[in-house]
Amino acid sequence: MQVFFSEEHRRHFPQAELNGGEFVTPFERPSRVEYVLARLNERGFAPPVAPGAPDMAVVRGLHDAGYLEFLEAAWDEWKAEGFAGEIIAASFPARRMQIARPPRNIDGKVGYYALASETAMTGGTWTAALSSVASAQAAQRAVASGARAAFGLCRPPGHHAASDMYGGYCFINNAAVVAQMFRNDGADRVAVLDIDFHHGNGTQDIFFDRGDVFFASLHGAPEDAFPYFLGYADEVGIGAGEGATVNYPMLPGTGYAAWAEALDAALARIKAWGAETLVVSLGVDAYKDDPISFFKLDSPDFIDAGRRIGRLGLPTVFCMEGGYAIEAVGINTVNVLEGFNDA
Ligand SMILES: NCCCNCCCCCS
Ligand SMILES: [Zn+2]
């Protein structure tokens, strides 16, 4: 399985994340991918290939133009406003306010486009996000050219990014871009399976009213887990998309047996729906020692999960999402890939 990865991810490393009223070292940090790279090498994967420039046409087809302009210009505008720190959202369009009118002021614009305050942006975030989606796109092209599967070692992740929202460490929705590329290549039905601990609110939102891309997510129940405000089991899609979204929210302490039941249910739905290609939002923060999650999967469970996904028998692109138990993120991520390869 070919891996695609860009060193440009390093341009995104905020100095702080707001967590529990403190500024801490961001959980989503560059060393995460170093552990994945080391494990890939240890397990004999071919050296990762650096992607070329991103194909912005498909990115623009999924993300709002104003949002992309905001992401690209934010740092300069933030600095021009005289702010000394990194970009952190502080004012949000809350209930019964004007939620569809972006302010002119950059502080207001940041809050308009952000879904949470934990995700800081720096002068290198935009470039890093472009390199991340370029890795995902290169993985899609490898599969579109005949490979059974490929892995976009994407950093920053993407599944929380909606067409016009960033947060949860995400800016451009890599998995959604890959799904759209499969559609553009002629696949009538594409499925996205999100096994990250956190609900892929951005991916769901992008495809919620579409009947050509199926979205299935296993995640911490929104009552208890970020992103909190999406991911309920009664969210099934609207309009042409009705029946093309399925959510499996699960409670704190969920172990692999129950999680695997949800995985099998999701895989059965994807198969019954008639998906021709599969995109996996590969987060491994369902791991028992993950610092910001509450499931209890152990490392061998990720091998079995990969095997179950592989048995679906679909051309598959894996996009790296979360996983914050830094010492284990490499083992757990590569375990999924190896389980898939063994299927
Ligand atoms: N400060 C702890 C809350 C975490 N909030 C963002 C989580 C994003 C996960 C991305 S996979
Ligand atoms: Zn996550």
Question: Could you outline the blueprint of secondary structure elements for this entry?
Answer:
Layout: E1 2-4, E2 17-19, E3 22-24, H1 31-42, H2 56-62, H3 65-80, H4 106-113, H5 125-144, E4 149-152, H6 174-184, E5 190-194, H7 201-207, E6 213-220, E7 245-250, H8 256-273, E8 277-282, H9 299-310, E9 316-320, H10 326-342
Parallel strand pairs: 1-4, 4-9, 5-6, 5-8, 6-7, 8-9
Antiparallel strand pairs: 2-3
Bound molecules: 5-[(3-aminopropyl)amino]pentane-1-thiol and zinc ion (ZN).
Pfam family, one: Hist_deacetyl
Keywords: Hydrolase, Metal-binding, Zinc
GO biological process, one term: epigenetic regulation of gene expression
Structure description:
The chain has a single domain (2-52, 125-342), classed as Arginase, Chain A (3-Layer(aba) Sandwich), CATH 3.40.800.20. Helix 9 (299-310) links the parallel strand 8 (277-282) and strand 9. The strands form two sheets. Strands 1-4-9-8-5-6-7 form a seven-stranded parallel beta sheet, with helices on both faces. The chain has a two-stranded antiparallel sheet with strand order 2-3. The chain has 343 residues and is of the alpha/beta class. Helix content is 37%, strand content 13%. It starts with a strand and ends with a helix. The mean pLDDT is 98. It is built from ten helices and nine strands. Bound molecules: 5-[(3-aminopropyl)amino]pentane-1-thiol and zinc ion. Zinc ion (ZN) binds next to loops.
